[in-house]
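> forwarded from #structure-qc
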């Protein structure tokens, strides 16, 4: 639970006894803040206070198990301010003792006062719903408020601040109490209960004034280029634009028109990418409003719980992927580093220009899909029979059954198969039954004619069917026949019957067992990898440059080249573009130009000498690279073929990596660069890796130095 106001953030229930080494800068947004905390007792309690050090100067700190007081001045005005963060105990008597302690603090110092947090008490009966109202507790709390003269702002956003037991128990136990001086100084301040997405408490936001920063500026981010449809939207908008007028006005209007189309496309894309989370947020907000005036019915309570679960699952995936991102760029929970490449690019396959790290959300979907596949393939297993007994109720007409009255893992699996869309089709559409003897494939409910079921193709006849769960062998062949409640009569029914007869006549049963085919694979075989590949293939990667990785050098060299070709390594140019302070722009190697990827590897005097020696050693004609991309594709243009070309590609990659290492040693250790030593390092590392990784075991060091490799 949290309370915010005036550059101050109070957190309750930290559930940690020692936070001295925790990095709060990620929560605050920068390092210009102060922090004090009270540790928890076991897993109970714990208080944290964070504040903007440019606004507050606190010089008095009072710590108690149940409250944390900070006193000081507001910079610029010199006004004295006192803030108390509260996490009250459960017992009525213990709370009354706490009220006395806080009252003593309030009387001990002058100035502005604000007491905020979880008071574990309500003032009136209407502030509690679904649980017992304790008159003695409320009376003690009201008496404390009257004695101290503190006041409350009217709260907006929600009637209650604590929601428990799936919405059955509601209460207003979190509040902000201020002194009359505080209230008179900011009479128009607004207290708002924010939505409770991941907690049973609503965060409280106290704003001293309403700020308007004007219209948000429009920005296009490079990560948008990875999204499907971006280029098409821009091209289409440019072609559709029409305007008669002066050229400069036409250009301005055209850019504004394209910008408007991009905004619309981005909004739609975000809605699609986070459709499930957005729907969950809408449902939670709607149901929390309903809770204010009546109890939720059984269906609404189920929706509320499932929506909360969706948000928690998304939060877990985001947290785990955050750990992966920090680890990838050398950071940790205590320290952060620059994330040089967008996560969407990192998590793209290598074949389309990414790093090949799979997104956890995609892996999760693929792994859950496997259980849907196993449910159809392993229909004689005990676990399948248990699932069918629980979920395949009398009126469940789905080929992957689910009982919404039950909660659990199986419902999540079915939901993933239904809601995950690839190529405009949910994953469940990629299941197709292959009829053999027709014993296990359901005639109406399983998709065996196409990627749709006959129930969906012939809805009118399905309503007439007596045995809706019949198998294919009971409707096809010698033992076949129809079992209607009445004979089809309407034009639509007869049209569907004609289609159904043609389907049945085209099928011949054989002695082979029925099986299932996965339409996402050419051979029809299901695998987690095929689901991941299918989901990645649905995205548009046409705008990405694809680096051809060299297989015989270590991954660290390939990753370096992958970053460098995007100018995503910490050159002076890249750091300046990221507004890093104290960066000298000149090349630290030759001191003759702005240090960029292009300069450092293609036009720097040291790099040119290295390439000259590499050409002499490898017996290739001296080359000139005008860009870094020219350099990494040079092995295709020096007249080499087969293994010789593969070896030369690796030498180029190793050379770039060695130049970068030499640059770093010069910059950070003061070790001067000697071109001969750089080339020697390239040769020695190349020899070690080409023998072991390219399996050229017969190659000797002397032959390698003469570059007699064939």
């Amino acid at each position: 639970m949290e309370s915010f106001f005036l550059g101050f953030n109070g957190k309750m229930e930290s559930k940690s006894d020692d936070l001295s080494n925790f990095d709060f800068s990620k929560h605050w947004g920068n390092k210009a803040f102060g922090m004090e905390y009270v540790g928890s007792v076991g897993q109970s309690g714990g208080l944290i206070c964070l504040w903007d050090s440019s606004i507050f100067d606190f010089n008095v700190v009072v710590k108690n198990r149940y409250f944390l007081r900070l006193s000081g001045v507001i910079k610029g005005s010199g006004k004295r301010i006192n803030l108390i963060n509260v996490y009250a105990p459960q017992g009525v008597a213990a709370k009354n003792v706490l009220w006395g302690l806080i009252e003593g603090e309030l009387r001990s110092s002058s100035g502005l006062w604000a007491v905020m947090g979880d008071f574990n008490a309500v003032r009136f009966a209407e502030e509690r719903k679904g649980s017992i109202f304790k008159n003695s507790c409320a009376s003690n709390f009201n008496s404390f408020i009257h004695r101290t003269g503190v006041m409350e702002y009217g709260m907006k956003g929600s009637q209650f601040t604590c929601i428990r037991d799936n919405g059955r128990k509601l209460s207003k136990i979190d509040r902000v109490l201020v002194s009359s001086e505080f209230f008179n100084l900011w009479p128009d301040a607004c207290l708002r209960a924010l939505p409770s997405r991941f907690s049973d408490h609503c965060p409280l936001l106290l704003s001293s004034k309403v700020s308007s920063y004007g219209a948000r500026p429009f920005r296009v981010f490079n990560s948008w280029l990875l999204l499907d449809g971006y280029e098409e939207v821009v091209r289409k908008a440019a072609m559709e634009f029409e305007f008669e007028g002066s050229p400069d006005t036409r250009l301005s209007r055209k850019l504004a028109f394209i910008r408007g189309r991009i905004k619309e496309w981005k909004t739609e894309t975000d809605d699609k990418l986070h459709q499930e989370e957005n729907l969950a947020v809408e449902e939670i907000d709607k149901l929390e409003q309903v809770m204010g005036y009546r109890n939720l019915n059984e269906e609404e309570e189920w929706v509320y719980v499932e929506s909360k679960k969706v948000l928690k699952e998304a939060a877990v995936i985001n947290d785990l992927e955050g750990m992966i991102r920090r680890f990838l760029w050398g950071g940790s929970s205590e320290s952060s580093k620059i994330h040089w490449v967008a996560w969407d690019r990192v998590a793209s396959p290598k074949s389309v220009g990414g790093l090949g790290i799979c997104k956890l959300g995609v892996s999760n979907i693929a792994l859950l899909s496997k259980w849907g596949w196993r449910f159809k393939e392993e229909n004689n297993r005990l676990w399948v029979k248990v699932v069918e007994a629980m979920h395949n109720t009398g009126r469940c007409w789905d080929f992957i059954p689910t009982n919404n009255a039950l909660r659990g893992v199986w419902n999540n699996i079915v939901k993933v198969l239904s809601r995950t869309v690839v190529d405009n089709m949910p994953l469940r559409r990629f299941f197709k039954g292959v009829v053999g003897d027709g014993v296990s494939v359901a005639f109406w409910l399983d998709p065996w004619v196409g990627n749709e079921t006959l129930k969906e193709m012939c809805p009118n006849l399905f309503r007439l069917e007596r045995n809706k769960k019949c198998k294919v062998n009971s409707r096809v062949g010698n033992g076949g026949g129809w079992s209607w409640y009445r004979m089809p009569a309407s034009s639509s029914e007869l049209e569907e019957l004609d289609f159904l007869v043609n389907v049945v006549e085209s099928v011949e049963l054989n002695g082979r067992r029925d099986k299932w085919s996965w339409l996402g694979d050419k051979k029809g075989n299901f695998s987690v990898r095929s689901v991941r590949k299918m989901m990645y293939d649905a995205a548009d990667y046409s705008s990405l440059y694809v680096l051809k990785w060299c297989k015989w050098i270590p991954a660290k060299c390939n990753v370096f080249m992958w970053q460098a070709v995007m100018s995503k390594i910490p050159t002076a140019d890249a750091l300046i573009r990221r507004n890093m302070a104290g960066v000298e722009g000149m090349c630290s190697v030759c001191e003759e130009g702005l240090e960029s990827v292009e300069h450092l590897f293609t036009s720097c005097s040291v790099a040119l000498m290295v390439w000259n020696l590499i050409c002499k050693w490898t017996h290739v004609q001296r080359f000139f690279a005008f860009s870094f991309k020219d350099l990494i594709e040079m092995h295709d243009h020096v007249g080499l073929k087969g293994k010789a070309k593969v070896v030369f590609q690796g030498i180029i990659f190793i050379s770039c990596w060695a130049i970068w290492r030499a640059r770093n040693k010069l910059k950070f250790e003061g070790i001067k660069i000697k071109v001969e030593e750089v080339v020697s390092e390239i040769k020695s590392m190349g020899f070690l890796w080409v023998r072991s990784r390219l399996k050229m075991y017969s190659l000797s060091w002397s032959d390698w130095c003469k570059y007699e490799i064939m």
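QC bot note: The radius of gyration is 34 Å. The mean pLDDT is 85.
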